[in-house]
Amino acid sequence: MGRTPCCDKTKVKRGQWSPEEDEILKNYILKYGTSAGNWITLPHRAGLKRCGKSCRLRWLNYLRPDIKLGNFTREEDNIICSLYTQLGSRWSIIASKLPGRTDNDVKNHWNTKLKKKLLTPNANNFDDSKQVFHSSSMIPKEEEQQAAYSPIQFPFPNWDSAGFSSILNNNKNMVQHDQKQFPLSRFTQDYSKISTSREESMIFGSSSVEMHENIDLAWFNTFEGFPMGDEIMGAGIWNQQSVLEDIDFPVTFS
DNA sequence: AAACACTCCAACCGCGACACC
DNA sequence: AGGTGTCGCGGTTGGAGTGTT
After folding, report:
1. How far apart are CA A192 and CA A139, in angstroms?
2. For nucleic chain C, which protein residues have CB less than 7 Å from any of its atoms?
3. What is the reported pTM?
4. Origin, by domain of life (predicted)?
């Protein structure tokens, strides 16, 4: 037995909303609010031949007075990408961090713009002045993937080669970043065995950083500014898709 | 100018969660 | 405790608009 439909679809209008319908719905909700009754009965009360769910969606995504229209800013892009890497497609939560944006907005923006940016292979865009990776630089070029001997490759956010080299050359128990140190225990590997050979390097946009050949697990959870979720697993050279699926770090767009 | 391809986004759909009886 | 109704979410789709050939 299937789910009972929320309304008789043969008796309700579907598709694009007309300006008149918008006006009726907007006036009704501004006058009576959305809590007087429920969404299912609202269209009848307001005199609309629409499904209640359709009314709800129209109000939330388009008619609400606090809706923010227009292009997404770079800052908003940053927030979306950062939260997406942490939360995945939890659009309502992501949208709640962007005043005036709806989950549908954010989802559409991600699907049509941001996801494509991420999937465009174009390394060497590391912006040293800002210490950020541009979206398109996060995924190493194919030839760079093949040229590197390292069993895994992934770009670290906000890390330059000098910062990471401190692991190798200075305190082998701590990682240094932005004048702060973080315990190496967050990495599962024994860093006393770190190799400095170039052929076991990781690609950092235009930079490369020596890494131990067997490193296959990293944990960013405690890094200040990057409230990350789970472990990052790497096995073999990641392709673009697996990077998108597996990696977990914030992104800054140009 | 016409046909086709592609992009973008509003709207729809189905499902899980939750509240209420 | 279980059934029913509603809400809210995320995935998907349809079609208008735009670009390309």
Report:
1. 28
2. A 4, 6, 15-16, 38-41, 52-53, 56, 89-93, 103-104, 107-108, 111
3. 0.57
4. Eukaryota
